[in-house]
Design brief:
Elements: H1 2-71, H2 77-117, H3 119-182, E1 194-195, E2 201-202, H4 216-228, H5 233-244, H6 255-263, H7 269-273, H8 277-283, H9 289-312
Antiparallel strand pairs: 1-2
Helix pairs in contact: 1-2, 1-3, 8-9
Length: about 325
Amino acid sequence: MTTSTISVDTAVNNLLRMIQSQLGNVQSLVDTQAVMISESLNTESDQYNRLIDQLDQSEKDFLALQLKHHSFVDCSDKKEQELTEQIAQLNAKLSRHALALNDSKELANELKELRALNPKRLKSKNAELSKKYRETSDLLLKLKKQFRDNERELLKQRSNTAQLTAATTELTLDNERLRAKLLRHDGNVIQKEYHGKDGLTCFIYPPRSELWPNDINDALIDVIRERCLSTHSHLIDRVEWAQSEDLADVAGLSEKHLKLLNESSFYSVYAVCHVPPTQLHRMVKGVGQETAKQIHAVCTQHVNKWEAQGVAA
């Protein structure tokens, strides 16, 4: 991370120095060009003026020669030849001057173009570039500071991420431990969903029978009974009836089974029905699993018969 910061600072400083050098070169070039343009303008103006003077003088000479030509028309052939030669020389000279004049026009056009460059405008533009350079320098400094702040924030976030990752790993382990406690070791969750309000869905995770506390049944029954008073009062009535219904009144129970149940403190229909058959055969001595299922089924049938009579009434 330190190497990355030094590289960025070095790059930014090199960029600043390069921009400063380029601006200095531009300033020097503008100043040099302004001086050269000014000198060239003065020189070309002088040349243009000299050419104009020479042209005027040539025209005057040409007119003078024409006057002499008319005045000496009747002169000898020799004189006429000399005059013709002089005229030819003057024409050649006039042609050269015309060419020079054309060149001077081109120079004048170049002069206009140079004037169009407007050194003052270039100087103003250079000032604007300098201002932009200062603004760019300030922005680069701000970006460097922001980069350092972001780097510190990134390190802080990485540290927080590492802490959160460790906490998440610990929570995952805790979740797995809790899941292991919730899952049965001798079977899966009961495959039935219990739906409540607002999309609530519940499942029953039966614990291992050997770990189930003996006194928790009564506590759970009291809680369920209290909750059912306002919504399922008929279930409370059934429980109270089953608690008062003697096993001796249940048709289908043999004297032997009734005796074994009474010897194990099972006297009411409720005492048998609220205990699962798998637990009943362990609680009643002399009763096997199949017999416990039969006893439980007979008592359940007796309860269903009572409920049917209540509905008919």
